[in-house]
Design a protein that fits this description.
The structure holds 2 protein chains of 2 kinds.
Chain A: H1 2-28, H2 32-61, H3 68-73, H4 83-89, H5 91-116, H6 121-141, H7 171-181, H8 183-194, H9 204-232, H10 243-268, H11 272-293, H12 309-330, H13 347-379, H14 387-407, H15 418-441, H16 447-475, H17 481-491, H18 493-517, E1 520-526, E2 531-534, E3 537-548, E4 553-563, E5 566-571, E6 574-578, E7 583-587, E8 589-592, E9 596-605, E10 611-619, H19 621-639
Antiparallel strand pairs in A: 1-10, 2-3, 3-4, 4-5, 4-6, 6-7, 8-9, 9-10
Helix pairs in contact in A: 1-2, 1-6, 2-4, 2-5, 2-6, 4-5, 5-6, 5-7, 6-8, 7-9, 8-9, 8-11, 9-10, 9-19, 10-11, 10-13, 11-12, 13-14, 14-16, 14-18, 15-16, 16-17, 16-18, 17-18, 18-19
Chain B: H1 2-32, H2 38-47, H3 66-80, H4 85-96, H5 111-151, H6 157-171
Helix pairs in contact in B: 2-3
The chains are: A alpha+beta, B mainly alpha.
């Protein structure tokens, strides 16, 4: 079975080589048959890789420890359902995961692309194929998960115990999928450039589609990671500005900028050069993310085992960046914008400011992440740059972005006259000061919190304003309020889907602000029978029970908790020690309400029966997790295609090919 | 007109009520700060800027490690002895080197960490200003040119025929 997988890998590699070469040839020679052949070659890769994946999972499930990767990442004691996690938890396996997932996504993208952009798609296929080829080459020659060992062990090493959690079924797959999916809009853009059609804006629709798909995957990966860290790591936080987290954040920032500025190109034919450079940079950042993750130079809790692999990714990133910019320079002249800026106060300039801000935050994140490398190289000073730096610098900038998010959508295109500004922004401005006043009255004194809440309310107001005005105008034409609301959204899905996404961002912003500034933390020493109080919570330590498993010892504490006078039941935080890994993993018990989270974690169980617990009250954290589904809903609304009846099928005239019937000179 | 402003007032009321609800909650939160003693708050604050030496990138506040909890008790002792935050940080730097602090200091090469972001921000603002100026100029230029070109253009009859031939062909498909 494993050998079958190996053959599948070799075949995939050959196929990828074929589609790269033939794809580019088809583009350059304008050969429809060549392009078709390349396409079908590419489609065949996905089933092959699924076969390879199946053989690896089979090896896990049957405890085949002669396969080196299986021995390193699982053991007999591991519940076999975790074979899915073990599959991508190690370096080699994750490469295979990326390859199979990308071959599927790119296959779908190529299918769609070919019907919409027949001249661009051979080139785009060539680029996507090349990306896949790189991964397959690394798998075959450097890190093959199906490689067999000479020595067959009785039992495997087992998986890192921190990975045994439901969140691990979904966070890493989504995150890795997100990073590699940036290759899709990138390939389309480069493909259009190579085909000489970069300035025609025809690629913008597909670029936006796959850009948003990629953005959705990246966001989901990040939110799942934060949620996992919060619920599993027992520290009460959700984002640590860890180098790997940062390297996932940077492409997200670039893609958020991209999905916005691509709208300006669609609407007004502006930002053509900017969008090209932006997507090239976004892809470079995604590659950098993969580099830092795989034996990068900066230590992180996320890193796979240290290996030389990382430097290969870095080299490929540099080469990709270089070649892309060379292509860009050669096709520079096809990218002149159709129009310029009519006014400094307009939606276009708001988009420009927003894009620059996103890239600035990405740059600062990059700077803070790699500066320790510089300082060590230059000065021999070792240092760590962590939360304090990033929160202080990026926090205010992100708040500025939330503000732009609020006023941008209500600024008119081209030019905002004072009349329209007055009409649109009058109410938000009133609400800004009203909310500021209310916050001060209710006792808030930290000026960042005051500012944050006020700005969030501005954004909230503009979204509501738009929804209500739109619904009202439909209602005045005879529809009931309910129908008016839904048909409003249905009639202009990109716009209103975007508003729903903005709502989720506001929820995130409020949750982050409240939990960052108002979280309460206390360490207590208790023995069974003790009761402690924190805020309106009373918690009584009842008992601790110990349970031994083949690979770990678990100590579970049982608490009875009251919120005010109301008994809210039992909570069971536990601490597990894995002697083989010398790791202790804690699982906090969380009682979540819409207002706050009550969070109990055991820090230490002492010999004398006493135990140290950390207790936390985190306000408004559930708003952050609730924001996730809202964000996904908004993105799906925004992406959903128009009804079939609204779309007319365009057919090219069935006449002899006359590319230039009107005799227009280009 | 009257109708519109009525709606607007209703809107702002709804919005403020929403925010009001939020802020009553926040006022409870603000009161939360009384639950934990100031001393404990200080200890947590200091813990969050000291790195655990064996766990990459985690503060001793975050880490579950034994070494981290030992260091936390050292911090607690030092705070109770009345040491200032700087003295405590210096103590740890003396033992582990400057790498132990999560926030880079402002002396030596580390000053660059802090200087570069504001410089980058200024560059960004200048870049945006320049871009706006260039794009404004281009717009003025194009609109001038366009008005000039459109003014005198007349389509010849043969070209008209060509256009209509193509249109008819397509629309008859």
């Amino acid at each position: 079975m494993v050998e079958l997988g190996q053959i599948a890998l070799i075949l995939s590699f050959m196929m990828a080589t074929y589609s790269t070469v033939v794809g580019f040839a088809g583009g350059m020679l304008n050969g429809r048959d060549l392009a078709a052949s390349a396409r079908w070659g590419f489609y065949s890769i996905c089933p092959l890789l699924i076969l390879a994946t199946a053989s690896l999972i089979y090896a896990f499930v049957t405890n085949d420890f002669s396969v080196k990767y299986v021995a390193e990442n699982s053991n007999i004691a591991m519940p076999k359902v975790y074979a899915w996690v073990a599959f991508y938890s190690g370096n080699a396996g994750s490469l295979l995961y990326i390859a199979v997932a990308f071959s599927l996504m790119a296959g779908i993208a190529i299918r769609v692309l070919n019907s919409k952009l027949p001249y661009t798609s051979p080139y785009a296929l060539g680029v996507m194929s090349m990306v896949l080829l790189f991964f397959l080459a690394v798998i075959l020659f450097l890190a093959n998960p199906l490689e067999r060992h000479q020595i067959v062990l009785e039992d495997g090493q087992g998986m890192n115990p921190l990975l045994i959690h439901f969140g691990m079924f979904i966070h890493p797959p989504f995150q890795m999928l997100g990073l590699i999916s940036v290759a899709l809009p990138f390939s389309i853009a480069i493909g259009a450039l190579l085909a000489g059609r970069g300035g025609r804006d025809e690629w913008v629709d597909q670029g936006r589609l796959w850009g948003m798909v990629s953005w959705l995957l990246l966001t989901t990966g990040l939110l799942l990671g934060a949620w996992w860290a919060y619920t599993i790591l027992g520290w009460g936080g959700y984002w640590a500005w860890d180098p790997v987290e940062n390297s996932a954040l940077m492409p997200w920032l670039a893609m958020t900028a991209f999905v916005h500025s691509i709208m300006v190109q669609k609407r007004r034919g502006m930002f053509r050069m900017w969008n090209m450079v932006l997507i090239i940079v976004a892809f470079a950042m995604a590659q950098m993310g993969m580099f830092i993750n795989r034996g990068g130079p900066v230590p992180s809790v996320h890193s796979f085992a240290e290996s030389t692999m990382g430097w290969i990714f870095l080299a490929v990133m540099a080469i990709t960046l270089f070649i892309s910019l060379v292509i860009f320079t050669f096709r520079f002249d096809t990218l002149k914008s159709r129009s310029g800026l009519d006014s400094i106060i307009s939606r276009e300039s708001a988009f420009l400011a927003q894009n620059v801000l996103f890239l600035l935050i990405a740059f600062i994140t990059l700077w803070g992440t790699i500066f320790p490398i510089f300082s060590e190289a230059i000065d021999d000073t070792t240092m760590t740059i962590g939360q304090p730096f990033f929160n202080k610098v990026n926090g205010p900038l992100m708040l500025l972005l939330v503000f732009l998010m609020g006023i941008g959508p209500v600024l008119p295109w081209r030019k905002a006259g004072w009349g329209s500004i007055n009409r649109m922004l009058r109410l938000p401005l009133i609400v800004f000061f009203l909310v500021l006043l209310l916050s001060l009255i209710s006792g808030i004194r930290e000026y960042w919190v005051l500012l944050a809440f006020a700005i969030c309310s501005v954004s909230l107001t503009t979204v509501f304003q738009e929804l209500i005005r739109g619904s009202r105008s439909r209602h005045s034409r005879g529809e009931s309020w309910g129908i008016a609301f839904f048909s409003l959204i249905g009639a202009n899905r990109p716009r209103y889907g975007g508003y729903v996404v903005h709502l989720s961002i506001i929820m995130l912003a409020i949750g982050i602000t409240a939990s960052s500034f108002y979280d309460v933390q206390k360490d207590v020493v208790m023995k069974p029978g003790d009761s402690e109080v924190l805020g309106k919570y009373t918690f009584k330590y009842l008992e601790v029970s110990e349970k031994a498993y083949p690979d770990r010892v678990e100590e579970t504490a049982k608490f009875e908790v009251w919120m005010g006078d109301k008994n809210i039941g039992y909570m069971h935080p536990y601490r597990a020690f894995y002697p083989e890994f010398q790791i202790a993993a804690t699982r906090g018990a969380i009682h979540s309400t819409i207002l706050e989270d009550f969070y109990l974690v055991p820090s230490e169980f002492k010999e004398d029966g006493q135990a140290v617990f950390r207790v936390l009250i985190n306000p408004l954290v559930s708003w952050m997790w609730a924001a996730g589904p809202v964000l996904i809903l908004g993105t799906l609304i925004s992406l959903s295609p128009k009804n079939r009846t609204q779309r007319k099928r365009l057919r090219l005239p069935n006449v002899s090919v006359d590319q230039n019937p009107l005799g227009i000179s280009e | 007109m009257k109708n519109v402003s009525y709606q607007n007032i209703r809107l702002s009321l709804i919005n403020s009520l929403l925010m009001l609800g939020l802020f009553f909650n926040t006022s409870c939160m603000a009161a939360n700060s009384d639950f934990v003693s100031q001393e404990e708050d200080r200890i947590n604050q200091i813990n969050s800027v000291i790195m655990c030496p064996v766990c990459p990138g985690e503060s001793i506040d975050q880490s579950q490690n034994e070494i981290a909890s030992n260091m936390r008790s050292i911090v607690t002792d030092l705070v109770r002895q009345g040491k200032t935050e700087k003295e405590i940080k210096d103590y740890f730097v003396g033992r582990y080197g400057p790498v132990i602090l999560l926030e880079p200091s402002t002396d030596g090469i580390s000053i660059f960490v802090w200087i570069v972001p504001p410089i980058a921000l200024s560059f960004a603002m200048i870049a945006v200003a320049l871009a706006v100026v260039v794009m404004r100029k281009r717009q003025k230029h194009t609109s001038l040119n366009m008005s000039h070109d459109v003014a005198g253009e007349i389509i010849s009859d043969e070209e008209k025929e060509k256009y209509f031939a193509v249109i008819n062909r397509i629309s008859n498909e």
